[in-house]
Amino acid sequence: MITAELNKKLWSAQGGMELALRFDLGTGESLTLYGDSGAGKTSTLRMLAGLLPPDSGRIVVGGETWYDADKNIDLPPQQRDIGFVFQDYALFPNLTARQNLLYGLRKGEEDFLEELIAISGLGELQHKKPGQLSGGQQQRVALARALVRKPKLLLLDEPMSALDHQMRNQLQDFLINAQQSYGLTIILVSHDLGEVIKLSDRVAVLESGSICKVGSPAEVFMQHKISGKFQFSGRVLHIQQEEVVWIITLLIATNVVKVVVSEKESRELQVGDQVVVASKAFNPILNKV
Amino acid sequence: MNKVKGVISGIEVSGSLSLVSVHCGNRVLKSIIIDTPDTLGYLVQGADVELLFKETEVVIAKPGPLDISLQNRIPATVFSISKGELLSSLILNSELGKLESIISTAAVTQLKLEPGKVVQAMVKLNEMMLSPC
Amino acid sequence: MLEGTPLKITFELAAVTTVLLFFVSIPLAFWLSSSRSRVKPIIETLVSMPLVLPPTVLGFYFLLAFSPSNSFGQWLDEWLGIQLIFSFPGLVIASMVYSLPFMVHPIQSGLASLPTSLKEASYLMGKSRFTTLYKILLPNIKSSLLTGIVLSFAHTVGEFGVVLMIGGNIPGETRVASIAIYDQVEALNYEAANFYSMILFAITFTILLLVYLVNGGYLKKFWR
User: Fold this and answer.
1) Span B44-68, mean pLDDT?
2) Which residues of B touch A261 (CB under 8 A)?
3) Are chains C and A in touch, 3+ Cβ pairs below 8 Å?
4) Which of A109, A60, A108 is nearest to A81 (CA)?
5) Over the Cα atoms of chain B, what is R_g?
6) CB-based contact A43:A10 (threshold 8 Å)
7) Shortest CA distance to B108 belongs to which of B43, B60, B42?
8) DSSP string, A195-225
9) Which residue, among A177, A166, A171, A182, has the nearest Cα to A141 in the 3D structure?
10) Is C in contact with B (3 or more beta carbon pairs below 8 Å)?
11) What's the gap in Å between the CA of A275 and the closest CA on chain B?
């Protein structure tokens, strides 16, 4: 579906950085670009969308060349079949939710508009303007709007970062449904491990402009490929010392659990850190409820 | 988490379980895992691995023969002890490097543990995790 | 002698200038707000020049350029049959240049204040630059547009030097209120000068007040 090879010299507060990456993605697959801010994730999305010109490289999507530095091909964003969800949603403030969708709708697809409004739960909100909507609602409008032209490729720039957990789950489900119903290929930028694991088939970890690791979320994030079979990703909520041990409170999905660690490990942790919790499958006990 | 480096020296497979022997220094430590060489790429003879086990799973015994099921035994000397009311942390020097063990303070008193004492550190084989390095 | 013609000419000139300027300034402001071209600083400087140049300098060069003794003025006269000097169309062109920054600056800063993602989102929905500007960007900078329109209008109403230089002082043709005031004062006819001045003062005050009320959101209270 997509073959991309992108090279670009980027300038940031930390100085220059050479972005150089290449990846392939099959139809219906989803890829997450994961990495620290400033690693080049957003720039990569923008280059795919035609919003930022690469210095050299090639982008071929579904057999159609979108960009080829050698052949001097560079399709404008208008001609790239892309749905894009911006970090700030970029909803048009002067238009209602429905008009935001309608703006991009192709002729004769009115049924699809109604379908999108229905599945994204915008029925009652459709006549409100973005300023009257909550963050989560704006998010849904942005997602629905990105799908309105039935794009082959959906790009999402940290779309869920501003949402609470429940809202996030709903939208992730919506996205998974949309992916299955419309055969979307998705590339998203995300910081949230849970989201990455739920939404993506593959993860590419970006480090100062190049892909340092790529694979399934399990391969990439179970960092040491620890053999333990009882593994979850979670977020550190609280760190507390008790005598010679440290008790780490973790949020795993919607459950709060506690794990005991040694002093040395506790020093490497901060509240908010994403962690992998691993144990041997021999340890947990199961109680039927 | 204690980490001990070693080389895989033996793999016994039964169904989806494997009993992995890891040569660490002069000693062989064993780990049982729900994986086989087919499901876990680095599970091959001669591969460099790390054995991971939690401080709280390290059992301390006085030296000498013991009639006990624990087979992973590492001779060590107590380097330091920090005592809490209920739990104590022991830092041990062993031929495999520094190890940490967290046991009850009552056990420290009962075994009369103090820095310099020779002990055996023991870990159940189902508490050992493997990681490639 | 009191007559309404200079006032009528003043407001006609201001209205025509403002309308034409509006359509010229939008693409210019759009280009300035989004371009990274190397000539952009030069264009920006030129647009801002009328802010600092004495109006008489502008007027002087227009006088030279439009004069039939000059090749450009001659060309205009021969090929298009237009005489710009001492005529209403000439005044309009000079006023457009003179008021250019008052229209371009508010629109440019309005456009620059919009997140670039709005424009990009529209492009990615297959829309051209024109559609994006017309359907998305301009409707979101209404207050900047209003500011530009009103400032240009008011500024044109208040011009003197340029008009004097290239319009001359032809009654019923190019004699605008500001010049009429000057004439009346020279003739020691303070009553007539006061008449024009009062009207100019009142109208410009009202216009500017309306802008501040609308942009400050004060009027919305009454609409709700």
Assistant:
1) 89
2) 1
3) yes
4) A60
5) 16
6) yes
7) B60
8) HHHHH-SEEEEEETTEEEEEE-HHHHHSTT-
9) A171
10) no
11) 14
Whether the model clears a pTM of 0.90, i.e. scores above it, the answer is no
Question: Which chain C residues are closer than 8 Å to A83 by Cβ?
Answer: 124
Give yes or no for residue B19 having a pLDDT over 50.
yes
pLDDT digits (tens, 9 = 90+) for A105-119: 998 888 889 988 888
| A84 to C128: CB separation less than 8 angstroms, yes or no | no
SS (H, E, C) A166-197: HHHHHHHHHHHHHHHHHCCEEEEECCCHHHHH
The chain C residue lying nearest A50, using CA atoms, is: C124
Residue type at position A17: M
CA dihedral (C11, C15, C18, C21) positive or negative: negative
Share of chain B above pLDDT 90, in %: 53
Asked if A92 and C117 come within 8 Å (Cβ–Cβ), the reply is no
Yes or no, beta carbons of C120 and A82 under 8 Å apart: no
Per-residue pLDDT at A226 exceeds 80:
no
Q: Please give the pLDDT value at position A161.
A: 65
Q: What is the mean pLDDT of residues A66-91?
A: 92
Q: Is C95 helix (H, G, I), strand (E, B) or coil?
A: helix
Q: Is the pLDDT of residue C17 over 80?
A: yes
**Out of A209-213, C71-75, C151-155, least confident range:** C71-75
Please indicate if any CB of chain B lies within 8 Å of the CB of A74: no
- Quick one: pLDDT band at residue A178, thresholds 50, 70, 90? confident
Helix axes C190-215, C5-34, angle to 10 degrees: 30
Residue B120 pLDDT class (50, 70, 90 cuts): very high
Residue contact C127–A78, C-beta within 8 A = yes
Least confident stretch, A138-142, A229-233, C50-54, C106-110: A229-233
Given a cut of 60, is residue A246 above it in pLDDT?
A: yes
Interface touch B127/A282, C-beta < 8 Å: yes
- Is residue A214 within 8 Å of B58, Cβ to Cβ? no
Kindly determine whether residue B87 and residue A265, on different chains, have CB atoms separated by under 8 Å: no
> What share of chain A in percent tops pLDDT 70?
94
* Residue C204: its H or E element: helix C190-215
B1, A265: Cβ pair inside 8 Å?
A: yes
How high is the mean pLDDT of chain C? 87
Kindly state whether A259 is in contact with chain B, defined as any CB-CB distance less than 8 angstroms.
no
Show residues of chain A in contact with B102, CB under 8 Å.
Answer: 244-245, 262
Token representation of residue A180: 């299955």
Do A164 and A181 form a contact (C-beta atoms < 8 A)? no
Task: Tell me the CA distances in angstroms from B98 to B5, B75, C2, one per residue in order.
Answer: 12, 12, 106
Q: Is there a contact between A84 and C124 if contact means CB atoms under 8 Å apart?
A: yes
DSSP single-letter state for residue C51? H
- Extended beta strands in chain A, E state: 2-12, 15-25, 30-35, 56-61, 64-68, 73-74, 82-85, 153-157, 185-189, 202-207, 210-215, 230-242, 245-252, 255-261, 274-279
Closest by CA to A34, choosing from A26, A45, A25, is A45
Measured torsion, CA atoms of residues A279, A281, A284, A289, in degrees rounded to the nearest 10: 130
What pLDDT shows up at residue A91?
94
